[in-house]
Design goal:
Layout lengths: L2 E5 L2 E4 L4 E8 L6 E8 L5 E7 L5 E3 L8 E6 L4 E6 L8 E9 L11 E2 L3 E6 L1
Parallel strand pairs: 2-11
Antiparallel strand pairs: 1-3, 3-8, 4-5, 4-9, 5-6, 7-8, 9-10, 9-11
Length: 123
């Protein structure tokens, strides 16, 4: 049984930083692209960043470019999302998801999803 679990969210002041973690079990992480998505209240889900099975990364959200770093540790079955200079607009539930090999702009290509971790940025 595959499980994907996010952690590291919380309440942070604007300008602060957070590192989110995503740990997957029941699969071989090195075979999967891992994506981060977010959903703010009243808004649709949007892609944040993704790292493919080779370690190449993309950032989907222009507003986050230059402020985030995605990385993976296959030995620990964990993917990280470091976020800096956080803004109130970054407040959302952040989800981690796994897709076979390559990143995709379509969330439907991600087979396994976590329950999310809440990030709240106060002004």
């Amino acid at each position: 049984q595959v499980q994907v679990v996010e952690s590291g969210g919380g309440l942070v002041q604007a300008g602060g930083s957070l590192r989110l973690s995503c740990t997957a079990s029941g699969l071989t992480l090195s075979d999967y692209a891992m994506g981060w998505f977010r959903q703010a209240p009243g808004k649709g889900r949007e892609g944040v960043s993704c790292i493919d099975y080779l370690g190449d990364s993309t950032t989907a959200t222009d507003s986050l470019k230059g402020r985030i770093t995605i990385s993976r540790d296959n030995a620990q079955n964990t993917v990280y999302l470091e976020m800096r200079s956080l803004k109130p607009d970054d407040t959302a539930m952040y989800y981690c998801a796994a897709a076979w090999k390559y990143c995709s702009v379509s969330s439907t290509n991600y087979r396994y999803w976590g329950q999310g971790t809440q990030v709240t940025v106060s002004s």
